[in-house]
Amino acid sequence: MGRRGELAVFRETFARDPEEPDFPFLFHVRGNGGVGKSTLVRQWENMAREQPSVVTAFVDDDVHDPIEAMEAVSARLAQQGHPLKKFDKQLAVYRQRRHQAESTAPAPQPGPGGEQPAPTPVASASSTVAAQVGLAGLGMLPGVGAFVGAVDPQQVALGADRVRSALNMRLRSHDDVQLVMNPVAALAPFFLDDLADAAERCERVVLFFDVYERTGPVLDVWLHDITFGEEHGNLPVNVQVVLSGQLRLDARAWGDRLGQVTEVCLEVFTEEEARTLLATHGVTDEPSVELVLRLSGRLPLLVDMLARSDASAAGGIGDPSETAVERFLKWEPDAGRREAALACALPLQLNEDVYRAAVPEEAAEGYPWLRALAFVSTQAGRCRYHDVVRAAMLRLQRTQSPTRWQRAHLGLAELFRQWREGVEAGIGPDADRHWEDATWREHRLNETYHRLCADPRAALPEALYGAVHAIDHDVATLRRWAQILGQAGQDTGAPALGSWGHRLEAAAEQDGTGAAVLTVLLTAPELSSPGRALAHTVRAREYRVAGDHERALADYAVAIGIDPDASRPYAGRGETYRVMGRFEDAVTACTRAVEIDPRDEWAFGSRGDAYRGLGRYDEAFADFARAIELDPQYAWAFGSRAQVYEALGRPDDAVADYTRAIGLDPQYAWAFGSRAYVHQTSGRLTEALADYTAAIDIDPQYEWAVASRARVHHLMGCHEDALADFARALELDPDYAWAVASRADTYVAMGRYEEALADCSRAIEINPRYEWALTSRGELYRALGRHEEALADYSRAIELDPAYDWALTCRGLLYRLLGRDEEAVADCTRVVEISPPSLELVAVRAEMNRGLGRYEDALADYGLALDDDEQAAWLLAGRAQLYLCLGRHEEAVADCVRAVRIHPEAGWFAALYAFSLRLAGEEQDAEAHFRRAIGLLSAEADGGTTEEMSELYGVRSPLDDLGILRDVLRSADPGAEPLVRELEEALRAVDAQVDAQGA
Length: 999
Fold this sequence. Notes:
Layout (H helix, E strand, L loop, with lengths): L3 H10 L12 E5 L6 H14 L3 E6 L6 H14 L5 H17 L23 H15 L5 H5 L3 H19 L2 H8 L1 H19 L2 E6 L2 H17 L10 E7 L5 H4 L7 E4 L5 H10 L5 H11 L3 H9 L15 H8 L3 H9 L8 H7 L8 H5 L4 E4 L2 E4 L1 H14 L1 H26 L3 H6 L1 H17 L1 H18 L1 H18 L2 H14 L6 H7 L7 H17 L3 H14 L4 H13 L3 H14 L4 H14 L2 H14 L4 H13 L3 H14 L4 H13 L3 H14 L4 H13 L3 H14 L4 H13 L3 H14 L4 H13 L3 H14 L4 H13 L3 H14 L4 H13 L3 H14 L4 H13 L3 H14 L4 H13 L3 H21 L3 H7 L4 H15 L4 H21 L2
Parallel strand pairs: 1-4, 1-5, 2-3, 3-4
Antiparallel strand pairs: 6-7
Helix pairs in contact: 1-2, 3-9, 4-8, 4-9, 5-7, 7-8, 8-9, 12-14, 13-14, 19-20, 20-22, 22-23, 22-24, 23-24, 23-27, 24-25, 25-26, 26-27, 27-28, 27-29, 28-29, 29-30, 29-31, 30-31, 31-32, 31-33, 32-33, 33-34, 34-35, 35-36, 36-37, 37-38, 37-39, 38-39, 39-40, 39-41, 40-41, 41-42, 41-43, 42-43, ...
């Protein structure tokens, strides 16, 4: 009745083109409680659904954050055949990643360059700004300003950066980190993409957000961003948004867009509208009409309620000072119904089961009657009273009979307790799993509310304990818990409960951590000992994740002091020690945890990772096996065990465990990336490419996988593909030093040296302690002949890491090239001492020792190298030359015989064999082998050097060797003139052929 103008305003939008510049796509229905806002927007929803190809979603105050709001919209649209599939899939990934973020953190894999950038103790500028903005907004909340003033925004920002750093270690994927750190920003693009798909298939999509005075504080920013912003994507033009609430829109959130909001302000009925409504219900006698107008204040809800009660049949006007609710109940002729209406005001919301438990037995069949009352709204099978009516009914019952009030609430609390315990029986005894179950949480919330209403003082300690559990679960659950406390305070007139509700809601709005909420809770003298132990344990976890290990350990110690028989604080302390690198302490703490609770799979997993850090791999395997036995779906345990296999050099077993983890979680981008890395390091580049691609398909923002795939493209020679992936990785993170330095390698392979130099310099600018980039730039300088700059870069890398064998090797080889053999030998010796000696490096040192006349040292090096590879013909040839220098011709011949047997077609080995034979006095054999060597070298020079020969000769060519052999024979053996002439003839022939080819 009435509201014809408001109905027409909305109806007219369906005759308009949403592309019109002034199309009303955002409505705000505003008015005091009881003016009919919910009724109007429900009428609007019915009107929308009557239109062809229009779908709607109606959301009320059952949601407590943007994630729940998006989930509710998705569920409503799915019921109408338009599921938001990509959003639902990503929401499932978010919940998995949240769980993983709290699981045992594996050691980070090094990048292909082997670098491990040091964390910075200074918060990033973006985090600092975000923290300041968040604190400023919090400071505007009533009663919270003084608390916020005591918080240092830089410390808040530093905590956010520590959380981000810790999550990077746990999740590896940048996008997974963002998903956990800022789930709204990560999920909103998927939500908008799916919404756009639904809008493309429909004429119109209309989203209704009712009771917005309650949900606005947590939905304002998100709704503003998806409606007007471009950060997450654009809202399709044929999507309308309707907000409905008692308050004006918050100018801080909407101020720049209030001009684009179509306001629909509802007032009380005019007298004519009220009289018309009464007449439709048959209330026409003037005394009754006057009474209704006076008692209702023309508030539409109360006018309708009193009209339905048939005031004219009640036998008199009565005392006009009585409330409308009392008058309504007196006019209801059925005493059982009157009592049922009052009793059903006690629950926050009800279904038929709650109704039957709340009302007298004689009214048990009256649920359909109750649902039809004007002040009762129905959604998703549940009923709730209008706030105005419910508040009046509660106040009436609480003041009329406190004893009956308490008894009724205790009865409802027992009902919800029984239901809660029924859910527990199906889940099992694990308390953490209870909190994961939405039905269980709903029963626990309702039970707590009714116990608070029955006896606020007695129930507060357990309610605060529940708040600790709630923040342990997630912030949205804490917000629900805070609202229950606040609602109980309002309904019982207990200021202490209302104060706790406001304080917890305010603390829940802080940026990124539950530590503030727990700090507030720990100030409560009413919090029980188990509650305090849990609060310290959960706050310790928050500190640990934020990288504040000392405060985490202090809180774990307090928790253990309060409750020494709880396993969780020991397990948490063990994990803290593990991430600090104190592996022995970690093992001790985790061992105590599993002694207390032998079914704590998380403690077994954490101890397994500590054993891995100690190199005690058998014990690590045993713990991971036990964790998997306790929870066969524990994908992270498979991933951690795979890392043990990697450390043991068992790549196939590592791949198998990563594959199991992927089987348990097909959206596990980290496991795909990790398996790709194993394939890459094992030389299985095709498989690595496929796995990196799968990881990127799951998570397009996974810059580590994108950059690693670029590296695989580089190794496969697909340089343009590599550059494209490096560009994408740097688009995702412009300060990704490893990607910049790795791209330099690709530029080198393409001969684009200046770009390679620029990239190396950029990587060093990003991270001045980046030894790998410094050594890479040194190698570039060396190749370009800029030797002093190369030496400076090598030396800087060695200064940063005195045990960096690659930099030492590069500098040693450059010293050798510059003729600084003493320094070269010193660097090579340091490398051999630091790491298992490489065959090549020992051989280089042998050659330099030979040049320095340190023949015995040189012989020892050749022997060491040949012990490693007795089939290395070039090492045998080098030692043969050393034997010749020592006059040990027979031993030289023996080494040459072995070298020629290994590579019978190598001309240089044949020549060295011939020369050794000649010096050993076997001239006839020597001459024959010299001629064979000339033929082999001429053929090699004529046909080009094979890859095998290149490996044998290094940078020399067969043409060089012909010249070297000629010069050696001319200077060492005057009797070899005929051979010299043959060599010169061979050289002329090869030169002529080269000229003919234009090479």
